[in-house]
Design a protein that fits this description.
This protein is mainly β and 83 residues long. The protein has no helices and 5 strands. The radius of gyration is 14 Å and the shape is globular. It holds the Pfam family LSM.
Length: 83
Amino acid sequence: MNQLPKESIIKLQSHINKEIVIQFQGGRQVKGILLSFDIQLNLVMDEVRELPSQRILGLVICRGALINSFAIDGMVEIENPYI
């Protein structure tokens, strides 16, 4: 039985070298430039700043299992239809 390679349903390749915002479990948010990622959505980001304090963190590896959500430039926040 041949297994196909697993692919992520989230297509981040087109967002390499662009600014993204990540929200972690627990509510902490960071903003930085996406440099690389893997199949588990572990992210390597540079020029990372913690939000809203703007504390500079620099080069960061974000563990995919701890990421709650992320926003990419051009995305628009909408009202939650389930509330």
